Amino acid sequence: MYDIKQWRHVFKLDPAKPISDDDLDAIGMSNTDAIIIGGTDNVTEDNVIHLMSRVRRYPLPLVLEISNLESVMPGFDFYFVPTVLNSNNVKYHNEMLLEALKEFGHVINFEEVVFEGYLVLNENSKVAQKTKANTQLDIDDVDSYALMANELYRFPIMYLEYSGEYGDVEKVKSVANTLTTTQLFYGGGITSLSQAKEMAEFADTIVVGDIVYQDIKKALKTVKIKESSK
Ligand code: 1GP
Fold first, then answer.
1. 3-state secondary structure of 136
2. How does it assemble (predicted)?
3. What atom of ligand 1 comes closest to residue 190's alpha carbon?
4. Exposed end of the chain (fewer CB within 10 Å): N or C?
5. CA angle 25–203–78, rounded 5-degree value
């Protein structure tokens, strides 16, 4: 029904952060390609269901990016399942996945599940601290991770996660050049159309998060990348 490969721009909304009806309406009626609900801390069944019910009325694909098992629920179009390639903790490689499959494996519709190979690259981000990610990676490292994602794991998506910080364009470019079939998502620190354009030149899909809560007008402007095709 929805073709993720066509997505150029997505908003990521954090269920733990309050958002007004007006701002949510502006996001829902924008020309973005999809909304992802996801966050690192304080993601609960209550706040996910609350946010889902508020955004469900908009004609956009809705994704739950899973951060813990307690907040997984039916009703989304897709479930993005991250595995953090540069985490030092097996929990974030596949231990949580094992728990999920033990509990829900028989009821999961795997057509809706999309596996994401994450590289967490901002050492100061909550996600880096939580997952104990080794963020000290040079271009050779990220390139080799890209090969791993594309050729070995054959992930549908590789996600370069700079959450809260604008990333290193050279690394994004280099990963983009290495990936041939895996779709590249970039997220982190995009606060303007020019940054959105710069990253969208290399990433297949850009993710815009925190600026939604800081300055909704700036956030909405990033959608204009869709007016120029890649
Ligand atoms: C976070 O990659 C997303 O998971 C977006 O990052 O919040 O910094 O925009 P920002």
1. coil
2. Homodimer.
3. 9
4. N
5. 50
Residues framing ligand 1 (Cβ under 6 A): 12, 161, 163-164, 187-190, 207-211
pLDDT tens-digit series, residues 22-44:
999 999 999 999 999 999 999 99
The whole-model pTM stands at 0.97
Angstrom distance (rounded) from CA 197 to CA 223: 10
Ligand 1 atom nearest residue 191's Cα: 9
| Test site for ligand 1: of 41, 126, 190, most ligand atoms within 8 A of the Cβ | 190
pLDDT in tens, 54-67: 999 999 999 999 99
Beta bridge partners of 63: 36, 78
The CATH number of 4-227, from 3.30.70.20, 3.40.1350.10, 3.20.20.390, 2.60.40.10, is 3.20.20.390
Tokens of 140: 């050779």
